[in-house]
Design brief:
There is one protein chain. This protein has 349 residues and is an alpha+beta fold. The protein has nine helices and 21 strands. Helix 4 (114-127) crosses helix 5 and helix 5 (143-155) packs parallel to helix 6. The strands form four sheets. Strands 6-7-8-3-9-10 form a six-stranded mixed beta sheet, sandwiched between helices. Strands 13-12-11-15-21-14 form a six-stranded mixed beta sheet. It has helices at residues 49-57, 79-82, 99-109, 114-127, 143-155, 173-190, 201-207, 225-230, 235-240; strands spanning 10-20, 23-34, 38-42, 64-69, 72-73, 85-87, 161-165, 193-198, 210-215, 218-223, 245-252, 255-258, 261-264, 266-267, 274-280, 286-287, 293-302, 307-312, 318-323, 332-336, 343-346.
Length: 349
């Protein structure tokens, strides 16, 4: 196989800013990406992750800051001069062109020899496992197959960096899981760096070497999936990483009060006695006969192996929890949680 990413050592985002009038969509985003890394930009809608990707691609200009590929400043280059591959949410395939023509379009724009284009298109089709689909039009393919064509078109130009903007959001759940594995396989095969925008924390956790959590145009935390899953640095990062229970509470030493019960906890930020936020994942709150927290069940949804439930303590605190057995609305159950799974953050923000 001859398709491989062009060699580089590091992509560097240096204080990247983008304003839309009075709106600061990106506020000094700084990040280093090494060759071969898979980076996920994760955050809610409007946090700036797609704006960052479009600035990298050259589809938006920077208001301030710079982008470097090794020693070359690239934010002043046109999109085609940067040589990056781009995979869009809506595939962006030419409906009147065959799969082969779509994949080879970028090479044709570079005036590559016809024989080279044919050879590289063959290789790209093999990589995305669509060798027998090259003669078809995009409309004759499934959504998953169209996404593979879009990936093939992005990698066939041998980019140092592949940019992906929520590429799986239009696929059903089964296809999303399948395509995650394919995207990671292709990433490792060609050796490029990949920057992948998503609002789905499960996607980010399963795909990325490092996750960049963004909020309101700023980078809130950068780390390995295991680090962000187990120890988010801030309460807002914890909320986005699945700590749905965010309880405004009082802290006293190494304990917090939840539902009128004092519980030992794990302080992530320095917390003096007083206002705090206790963050707990629903799957860390388990039904247990001797649990210290009593809640009245308000809802229970079957999610396969467990029921996803919500309930309230006597003082009105709402808690989301998991149960291996069906529980009924109005029933009182007791909940237990390990002390190290109650994360505590400052409550003054």
């Amino acid at each position: 196989m001859s398709i491989a990413a062009r060699d580089f050592r590091e992509l560097r985002l240096d204080g990247m800013c983008r304003n839309f009038g009075s709106l600061n969509a990106l506020k000094g985003v700084t990040l280093n990406v090494r060759r071969g890394e898979f980076i996920a930009l994760l955050g809610p809608s409007g946090c700036g992750k797609s704006t960052a990707l479009n600035c990298l691609a050259g589809l938006l200009t920077l208001t301030d800051g710079s982008i470097w590929l090794d020693q070359t400043r690239i934010d002043e280059l046109r999109p085609e001069e940067r040589g990056f591959g781009m995979v869009f949410q809506n595939y962006a395939l030419f409906p009147h062109m065959t799969v082969r023509k779509n994949i080879g379009f970028g090479l044709a724009m570079q005036n590559r020899p016809k024989a080279e284009i044919e050879r590289k298109v063959d290789e790209a089709l093999a990589i995305v496992r669509l060798t027998d689909q090259g003669h078809k039009l995009p409309g004759q393919l499934s959504g998953g197959q169209q996404q593979r064509v879009a990936i093939a078109r992005a990698i066939v130009i041998e980019p140092p960096l592949v940019l992906m903007d929520e590429p799986l959001s239009n696929l059903d759940a089964k296809l999303r899981i399948e395509m995650r594995a394919e995207i990671r396989r292709i990433h490792e095969l060609i050796g490029s760096a990949t920057i992948y925008v998503t609002h789905d924390q499960e996607e980010a956790l399963s795909l990325a070497d490092r996750i960049v959590v963004m909020r309101a145009g700023e980078v809130r935390q950068v780390g390995a999936p295991e680090e962000l899953y187990a120890r988010p640095a801030h309460a807002d990062v914890a909320e986005f990483m699945g700590y749905r229970n965010q309880v405004r509470t009082k802290a006293s030493g190494a304990t917090v009060s939840i539902g009128g019960v004092s519980l030992p906890a794990n302080a992530i930020e320095p917390v003096s006695d007083g206002d705090a936020v206790a963050a707990i994942r629903p799957n860390d709150l388990k039904v247990a006969a001797d649990g210290p927290l009593a809640v009245t069940v308000e809802s229970a949804q079957y999610h396969g192996q467990e029921f996803y439930c919500s309930g309230r303590t006597a003082d009105g605190t709402e808690l989301y929890f998991m149960s291996e057995h069906r529980v009924a609305k109005g029933e009182t159950v007791r909940l237990a949680v390990a002390p190290n799974r109650i994360l505590v953050y400052r409550g003054d923000k």
